[in-house]
Design brief:
Blueprint (H helix, E strand, L loop, with lengths): L7 E4 L2 E4 L7 H6 L25 H13 L5 E5 L6 H14 L3 E6 L13 H12 L4 H10 L8 H16 L5 H5 L2 E6 L7 H17 L4 E7 L3 H7 L8 E5 L6 H19 L13 H11 L3 H11 L6 H8 L14 H11 L5 H12 L11 H8 L5 H7 L5 E2 L7 E2 L2 H7 L2 H4 L6 H18 L3 H17 L4 H8 L3 H6 L8 H13 L5 H19 L3 H4 L2 H14 L3 E8 L7 E8 L4 H7 E3 L4 E3 L18 E2 H8 L3 H6 L12 E6 L5 E7 L3 H5 L18 H15 L7 H7 L21
Parallel strand pairs: 3-6, 3-7, 4-5, 5-6
Antiparallel strand pairs: 1-2, 8-9, 10-11, 12-13, 14-16, 15-16
Helix pairs in contact: 2-3, 4-6, 5-6, 6-8, 10-11, 10-12, 11-12, 16-21, 20-21, 21-24, 24-25, 24-33, 27-29, 27-32
Pfam families: NPHP3_N (PF24883)
InterPro entries: NPHP3-like_N, P-loop_NTPase
Protein name: Nephrocystin 3-like N-terminal domain-containing protein
Length: about 750
């Protein structure tokens, strides 16, 4: 009676037959998948998609690789956080699914429980393989049924048993065209798999499949450019198997962002319940340009703005003004960039130690007005006196929002990250306190002036110190450091090569002027800083305060370039006697005009009025020659005349090179600009033809005067090394900007 019966339950003399329906292999497989990881999953309803007409170039490039490529079988699409990688991958998945060449897709997600590790990756791919190629189903079911421990095995084994072998066994039963077609497995957000080691294991395992599989299987992988992933993709096994696409400016993302924003605003003006209150030209070109600039080509910023301005119960124009900081938030607990802030906080949370990481970020993000001074990792280490490699170590953890490589400067992928870091309410513990950092950076600049060893770092320190001074907290310690600068050590620092000493001293003296402190205290500090400069100049300062050397200098200047006009002013230098400063401008004067305009006695130089034509340009050719006998009429056989015959008397250190040249027979002298390396100029012994116009001469005659000063001082018997700081630190405080077309020189007398 019960010979063939199973599952018989006998209780109290009653016989019961219990049926247990066994779970099929496909159901077992289904229980081990992450259904939300598929491109068409309901869990991912309304996934990120490309706005119509955007990302066309990169999508076409990837599709071309999938359908036409025969050289590589793996493609890495990488870009910073928020660049729109997932939207592109979604678009590719849908297109390939429609063409029946998509085998499977897996979209990792850091915040989704079943999609943030590798445990369900292979089973999810296998489940989709059954749907895409039903011929593989019996072979996959067989493996699942026969190996209860299958899903606990390593990823390499799972790929072999669930993907490679079923594909190979089904190969013979498939039509011939299908066998040669490409078949894509797409993996998005690999960096969101929660274990970097697991990410590397996945890549290594996928790399083995094409060699074992009869099918033409291709892998499209998308991720942020995390350091460990770059190391893996750069390793030898991937060298000939991998193609790469970087989401950078090559694909004009800014134009795509603009198109998306324009479309969003147009739709709001057509459909929003409060559209009647929106101006016809809203939001206007200026605001749109600002949004595009702040997006830095990253769609997450633009998408965040679009979501924030779109709610039907608020006015879009008011919400946009909140985004741009033009209008206060109505709700203090409401943050326009909550999603973006969460992204930044997550990335920054990877920092092991906030300091010096935040100081490194502060240095790169520091507001420098319209100027841009760039930093490499090596330069940052040097400037902040960090152990070599410290900056790279920090930036490697921030690779999804900050970029660099061996030849490029450090740069933020997101301009909005700077706004985030400088807003304490948004960034919290990662807030960059500009006042504190400004003080620290001023001290670092002073150290570079006297003991720096890197020319590039020295150059940045010179150009940035006055900006840092605007934010510095000028306590007594900082003031003492400023006044204690050793100008002699600065002048002798080899790192200064290529940077004019005049510029260094000017920036040094400008820094305390920018300090946020009471004027009497600021003036006192400025006097102390000037005294530091005078310690270096020493007794020769007296030469510049007497009429004789000044007259001598400007006679030489006139002789070399008779088209220069002189204006004099009296400047009070601290508590010392006032001294004369001469503004130098160029006028369209021939030699004859010059002869008739100048009269000289032992102590006086006079220059008559010479009007400026309205269309006059300071680059006017033909007014740079003068006969040497005319020079000798004023100076006699001055030393500089003989020296000029040797061609090169002075080479500017950092700007286009200027040299004094004479003909061999000493009939005329000229100033010639060379747009070449100074080393090449030094090899030139003479120049017979002087008829070409000056090259790259600046319109600012003051700049010209500063260039000539060292040579002129040499000709006057004064140490030329003092010349390149004289105009900035000793006899002048400021110089006005002249209007070339309207200024009319007055008669000037010393």
């Amino acid at each position: 009676m019960f010979s063939s019966s199973k599952n018989i339950l006998i209780t109290g003399g009653t016989f019961s037959h219990v049926e247990h329906k066994s779970q099929s292999a496909l159901e077992k497989l289904q229980g081990m998948i992450a259904s939300g990881a598929m491109h068409n999953s309901g869990e991912r309803f309304d996934p990120p998609k490309c706005y119509p007409g955007t990302r066309v170039a990169v999508i076409n490039e990837l599709l071309g690789w999938i359908t036409n490529n025969r050289d590589t079988f793996m493609h890495w699409l990488y870009g910073p956080a928020g660049a729109g990688k997932s939207a592109i991958m979604q678009e590719i998945a849908e297109l390939c699914f429609g063409r029946r060449i998509l085998l499977a897709s897996f979209f990792f997600s850091r915040t989704a429980l079943l999609r943030n590790d590798e445990k369900r990756l292979v089973s999810t791919i296998a489940y989709q393989l059954v749907q895409a190629l039903p011929q593989t189903r019996p072979f996959i079911e067989e493996v699942v049924e026969n190996d209860p421990a299958l899903f606990s095995k390593d990823i390499q084994t799972q790929l072999q048993l669930l993907i490679v072998e079923p594909l190979n066994r089904a190969f013979l039963s498939l039509p011939v065209p299908f066998k040669s077609d490409p078949h894509l497995i797409l993996v998005d957000g690999l960096d969101e798999c929660n274990n970097p080691a697991a990410q590397q294991r996945i890549l290594t395992a996928l790399l083995t499949i094409p060699a074992l599989c009869k099918f033409r299987v291709m892998f499209l992988i998308a991720s942020r450019p995390e350091t460990h992933l770059k190391m893996t993709f750069n390793s030898e096994p991937f060298k000939h198997a991998l193609a790469r696409t970087a989401l950078d400016d090559q694909y004009q993302p800014a134009e795509d962002v603009r198109l998306f924003l324009e479309g969003t605003f147009t739709q709001l003006k057509q459909t929003h319940p409060l559209r009647e209150y929106l101006p016809v030209d809203w939001p206007g070109r200026s605001k749109l340009d600002t949004l595009v600039r702040k997006s830095s080509g990253q769609f997450i910023y633009a998408a965040t703005v679009a979501r924030y301005v779109s709610p039907p119960d608020t006015r879009p124009d008011d919400r946009l003004d909140v985004v741009l900081g033009l209008f206060p938030r109505g709700d203090v607990h409401e943050f326009p960039f909550a999603e973006l802030d969460a992204l930044y906080l997550h990335v920054l949370s990877s920092l092991r130690i906030k300091m010096p990481a935040l100081r490194i970020l502060a240095l790169v993000a520091f507001p420098l007005g319209s100027q841009v001074y760039e930093w490499t990792c090596r330069m940052v280490d040097d400037f902040l006196k960090l152990r070599g490699g410290s900056t790279k170590e920090v930036l490697n953890r921030l690779a999804s929002v900050i970029g660099y490589n061996e030849v490029q400067y450090i740069h933020f992928f997101h301009a909005s990250l700077v706004d985030f870091l400088l807003d304490e309410e948004r960034s919290g513990e990662f807030y960059i306190h500009l006042q504190g950092e400004g003080s620290y950076f001023v001290r670092m600049c002073l150290r570079q002036f006297t003991s720096g060893t890197d020319k590039d770092v020295f150059h940045n320190a010179v150009n940035c110190i006055d900006f840092y001074g605007r934010y510095a907290i000028p306590d007594e310690t900082l003031c003492q450091d400023m006044a204690a600068l050793n100008v002699s050590a600065l002048a002798q620092n080899e790192a200064r090569e290529g940077t004019s000493l005049a510029l260094v001293v000017h920036k040094y003296l400008q820094c305390p002027r920018n300090f946020n402190m009471p004027k009497p205290s600021r003036d006192t500090l400025l006097v102390r800083c000037r005294e530091a400069v005078e310690k270096f100049i020493g007794p020769q300062v007296r030469l510049y305060r007497s009429t004789g050397p000044l007259l001598h200098i400007f006679l030489v200047l006139f002789a070399v370039n008779p088209g220069l006009m002189l204006y004099s002013s009296r400047y009070k230098y601290a508590d010392r006697p006032a001294c004369t400063w001469v503004d130098i401008m160029m006028a369209p004067m021939s030699d004859e005009d010059f002869r008739s305009s100048v009269s000289v006695d032992d102590s006086t130089l006079c220059l008559r009025d010479v009007p400026f034509p309205a269309d006059y340009s300071p680059l006017h050719p033909g007014h740079r020659m003068v006969f040497l006998p005319f020079i000798e009429k004023f100076l006699g056989p001055a030393d500089f005349v003989a020296a000029a015959c040797h061609v090169v008397l002075y080479i500017d250190e950092c700007e286009p090179t200027w040299t004094f040249i004479t003909d061999e027979d000493r009939r005329r002298a000229s100033i010639v600009g060379w747009n070449v390396d100074p080393k090449d100029v030094k090899n030139i012994e003479k120049r017979e033809s002087l008829d070409n116009s000056l090259l790259n001469m600046k319109h600012d005659a003051y700049e010209c005067a500063v260039r000539y000063l060292p040579l002129l001082l040499l000709s006057a018997g004064i140490d030329p090394k003092l010349g390149d700081i004289l105009s900035q630190s000793v006899i002048t405080s400021d110089i006005g900007t002249h209007n070339w077309s309207s200024q009319k020189p007055a008669t000037t007398t010393w």
